[in-house]
Amino acid sequence: EIVLTQSPGTLSLSPGERATLSCRASQSVSSNYLGWYQQKPGQAPRLLIYGASSRATGIPDRFSGSGSGTDFTLTISRLEPEDFAVYYCQQYGTSLRTFGQGTKVEIK
Amino acid sequence: QVTLKESGPALVKPTQTLTLTCTFSGFSLTTTGMRVSWIRQPLGKALEWLARIDWDDDKYYSTSLKTRLTISKDTSKNQVVLTMTNMDPVDTATYYCARDSPSLDYWGQGTLVTVSS
User: Fold this and answer.
1) What's the pLDDT at A22?
2) What is the CA radius of gyration of chain B?
3) Which residue, among A34, A97, A101, would best test binding to B if mutated, counting the most B CBs under 10 Å from its CB?
4) CA distance A85 to A68
5) Span B65-103, pLDDT tens digits
6) Distance (Å) from the alpha carbon of B104 to chain A's nearest alpha carbon
7) Are strands B3-7 and B18-25 parallel, antiparallel or unpaired?
8) With an 8 Å Cβ cutoff, is A101 touching chain B?
9) What phi and psi values does residue B115 have, to the nearest 5 degrees?
10) N or C: which terminus of chain B has fewer CB atoms within 10 Å of its end residue's CB?
11) Residue A98, Cα to own-chain centre: how many angstroms?
């Protein structure tokens, strides 16, 4: 199965700053079937990005995804107070789905 | 409008079998390309994908848990059922179901299952 490694584990930033989150796969992700999810305390995860770079319905354009093969990035161009949360990448290019271990974006 | 909701016991004893039901609306598991996945999350820890069932009744399981998991569907009731045998306190977690199309675009609210004697 594909192992996803996210970095950094924690990102300490201020509102208005740019956040760059990384997700690296142990093998190439088929068809760039890579998603990013946001999770706030006490809530279910929410899909932000699918297909590595397509925003899900209703997701603000400050969220963008990029990458291919084994290296993927989620960028939040200007952090809003509601963006401080945990972010997970997930691959769905194989029958067995897998998640990364998450990156926490916290207020500095 | 797509919705999913998990249901099942909040407390199970060690060695017991857990049965969880995901009841959904707004889509059909008879539609080509539709799938439902189960995911769990221990408190304060990462998401872990468990199992998936497809519109054609194909089933897939996490490598580490496949001997303990069974997934099934009842298309007439719009339900997916997950059973996990031989429950242990380390299985204490919030269990989610999600529409897998193939990204996990809709999630249930989750149900907390505690394993304790």
Assistant:
1) 98
2) 13
3) A97
4) 24
5) 999 999 999 999 999 999 999 999 999 999 999 999 999
6) 7
7) antiparallel
8) yes
9) -105, 110
10) N
11) 13
